[in-house]
C-alpha cells in the first residue's frame, strides 16, 4: 500500500514537473537568444516576490540584449520581447491583423461577475473592433470639450478644499498627502465623466463610490493570487466560478450604470458623459456620431466599458500626477517655468473662467506631462498574441517565425530609457518635447499609450 502511494506521489510530481517545464526549450528550437528561467517563476520571480517593480523588470530584460528580439519567460509562458522600433511598426501597424488581441483570457465575456473580461481591453477580434468603433466618438476633441465643464467642476471643488485646509492651518502651514489628494481628484473626475455622479470625495471622505474604487484597485495578496491563477489556469477558474473581483463590487457597478441609464431614459436627461454615449450605442438615444454595425450590446458589455474606464483611470491618472509632482519638486527650473506658464494663462483669462482651449494652449504643461509619461510610463509594457503564423527577416539575416498563439511584449519603458533614443534617459527633461526638439524623436520610440489601431483609447 505504502509503495503504491509513493509511486503515485512520484508520478504526480513527475507530471507536474513536465507541465511546469514543457516550454523551456521554446527559444532553443527557434534559435532565439533568451534568459534562462527559474522553475515555475520564469524570469518574473523578483516581481512575484515584490523585490522589483515591473518597470525595473522590463528595463533589465530590455538592457540584457542588443538584438531586435529577446526571449524570456513570464512564469511558464515564453514571450518574445520586441526591441526594435521598425519591427514594432511592422507588428503593430502593417501586420496588425496578425496581432489584434491581448494574450490573457480573463473569463467569460457573458459572466456578469467578471466585468473586466467584458471590457474593451479584453475583447478579441471582431467584438473588439465593433466596441472600439462604438467608443471612439466618446474620446474625440468635441466630446472632451463637452466633458470639460464636468471636469472643471471637480477641479473647483478640489481648489475650494485646499483653500479651506490652508485657512484652517494658516499658523502651522499646510501638509497634504499628495497621493491621497490626487486619488480623490481622479475618482471624482471619473465618477462625473463616466458614471454621471457628483460625489466630492474631499468633503465626503467615505462615499461609497470612492471606497468601492479603492477596493477594486487595491491589489491584496488574494487579488494578486486571482490574477496569477487566471493567467495560468484560467479555464479552471471559470469552471469553478471564481470571479476576478468579488460579487459585491461587480453588482455595485452593474446597478450603478443600468439604473442611471433607466432613470435618464425615463426622465429625458442628457449629460455629456460616457453613460450618455453608451445609451446612444444601444439605440436608447439618437446619435449621428456613432458608426453602425450589427452588434447588439448586452448589459454586461455596456457596464464593462464603464468599469474599465474606472479601473484603468483611477490609479494610473493619480500615479501620473504624483510622479509629475515629484519630478517638478526635484527640478526647480522646471517648476519655475511651469508656474510661469500657469500664471500667464491665469493673467490672460483676466478673471474669466478657465477654458478647454486655454489648457490646450499650455505648451510647457504638455511638455512636462509628455516627459513624465516617457520616464514613468503608465503602461511599462504592452502585450499581444499572434493569431496567424507570420515570418520576419531580421537584420542579421535570421528568420523570425512567430506562430499562432505566441506571446509578445512591447517594452515601452525599456525603449523610453534607452540612451540611443533619449540622451541621458534618467534625466527629467521636458525640452525633449519642445517644438524645436520633438521632431528629433525617432518614430515608434515614444509609446506611452501603445501603438497601432489597438493603442489606448484614453490617450
TrEMBL record:
Q: How does it sit in the membrane?
A: Peripheral membrane protein
Q: Which UniProt keywords apply?
A: Endoplasmic reticulum, Heme, Iron, Membrane, Metal-binding, Microsome, Monooxygenase, Oxidoreductase
Q: Which cofactor does it need?
A: heme
Give one GO term, molecular function aspect.
Answer: iron ion binding
Main localisation:
endoplasmic reticulum
Classification via Gene3D superfamilies: Cytochrome P450 (1.10.630.10)
Q: Which domain of life is it from?
A: Eukaryota
InterPro entries (UniProt xref): Cyt_P450, Cyt_P450_CS, Cyt_P450_E_grp-I, Cyt_P450_sf, Insect_CytP450_Detox
Which CDD domains does the UniProt entry name for this protein? CYP6-like (cd11056)
Q: Cellular location of this protein? A: Endoplasmic reticulum membrane; Microsome membrane
Q: Which Pfam families match?
A: p450 (PF00067)
Q: What does the entry list under GO cellular component?
A: endoplasmic reticulum membrane
Q: Which residues bind heme?
A: 456
Q: Which family does it belong to?
A: Belongs to the cytochrome P450 family.
Q: What's this chain's function?
A: May be involved in the metabolism of insect hormones and in the breakdown of synthetic insecticides.
State the name under which the record lists this protein. Answer: Probable cytochrome P450 9f2
Species name for this entry?
Glossina fuscipes
Source lineage: Eukaryota, Metazoa, Ecdysozoa, Arthropoda, Hexapoda
Amino acid at each position: 500500500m505504502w509503495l503504491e502511494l509513493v509511486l503515485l506521489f512520484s508520478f504526480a510530481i513527475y507530471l507536474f514537473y513536465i507541465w511546469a517545464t514543457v516550454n523551456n526549450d521554446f527559444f532553443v528550437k527557434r534559435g532565439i537568444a533568451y534568459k534562462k528561467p527559474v522553475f515555475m517563476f520564469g524570469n518574473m520571480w523578483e516581481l512575484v516576490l515584490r523585490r522589483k517593480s515591473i518597470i525595473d523588470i522590463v528595463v533589465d530584460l530590455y538592457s540584457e540584449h542588443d538584438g531586435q528580439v529577446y526571449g524570456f519567460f513570464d512564469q511558464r509562458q515564453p514571450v518574445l520581447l520586441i526591441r526594435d522600433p521598425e519591427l514594432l511598426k511592422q507588428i503593430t501597424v502593417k501586420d496588425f491583423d496578425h496581432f489584434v488581441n491581448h494574450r490573457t483570457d480573463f473569463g467569460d465575456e457573458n459572466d456578469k461577475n467578471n466585468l473586466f473580461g467584458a471590457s474593451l481591453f479584453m475583447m478579441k477580434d471582431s467584438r473588439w473592433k465593433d466596441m472600439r468603433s462604438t467608443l471612439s466618438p466618446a474620446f474625440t476633441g468635441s466630446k472632451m470639450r463637452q466633458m470639460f465643464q464636468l471636469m472643471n467642476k471637480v477641479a473647483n471643488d478640489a481648489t475650494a478644499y485646499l483653500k479651506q485646509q490652508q485657512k484652517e492651518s494658516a499658523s502651522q502651514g499646510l501638509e497634504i498627502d499628495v497621493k491621497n489628494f490626487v486619488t480623490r481628484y481622479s475618482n471624482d473626475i471619473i465618477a462625473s465623466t463616466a458614471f454621471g455622479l457628483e460625489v466630492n470625495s474631499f468633503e465626503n471622505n467615505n462615499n461609497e463610490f470612492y471606497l468601492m474604487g479603492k477596493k477594486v484597485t487595491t491589489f491584496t495578496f488574494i487579488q494578486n493570487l486571482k490574477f496569477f491563477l487566471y493567467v495560468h489556469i484560467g479555464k479552471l477558474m471559470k469552471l469553478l466560478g471564481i470571479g476576478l473581483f468579488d460579487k459585491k463590487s461587480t453588482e455595485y457597478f452593474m446597478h450603478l450604470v443600468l439604473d442611471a441609464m433607466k432613470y435618464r431614459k425615463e426622465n429625458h436627461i442628457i449629460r455629456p458623459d460616457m453613460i450618455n454615449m453608451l445609451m446612444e450605442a444601444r439605440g436608447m438615444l439618437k446619435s449621428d456620431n456613432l458608426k453602425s454595425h450589427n452588434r447588439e450590446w448586452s448589459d454586461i458589455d455596456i457596464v464593462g466599458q464603464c468599469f474599465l474606464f474606472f479601473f484603468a483611470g483611477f490609479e494610473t491618472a493619480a500615479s501620473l500626477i504624483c510622479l509629475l509632482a515629484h519630478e517638478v519638486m526635484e527640478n526647480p527650473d522646471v517648476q519655475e517655468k511651469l508656474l510661469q506658464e500657469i500664471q500667464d494663462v491665469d493673467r490672460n483669462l483676466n478673471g474669466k473662467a478657465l477654458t478647454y482651449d486655454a489648457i490646450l494652449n499650455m505648451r510647457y504643461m504638455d511638455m512636462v506631462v509628455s516627459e513624465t509619461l516617457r520616464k514613468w510610463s503608465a503602461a511599462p509594457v504592452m502585450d499581444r498574441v499572434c493569431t496567424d503564423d507570420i515570418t520576419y527577416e531580421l537584420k542579421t539575416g535570421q528568420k523570425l517565425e512567430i506562430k499562432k498563439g505566441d506571446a509578445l511584449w512591447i517594452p515601452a519603458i525599456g525603449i523610453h530609457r534607452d540612451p540611443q533614443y533619449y540622451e541621458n534617459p534618467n534625466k527629467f527633461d521636458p525640452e525633449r518635447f519642445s517644438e524645436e526638439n520633438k521632431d528629433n524623436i525617432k518614430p515608434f520610440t515614444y509609446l506611452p499609450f501603445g501603438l497601432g489601431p489597438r493603442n489606448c483609447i484614453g490617450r
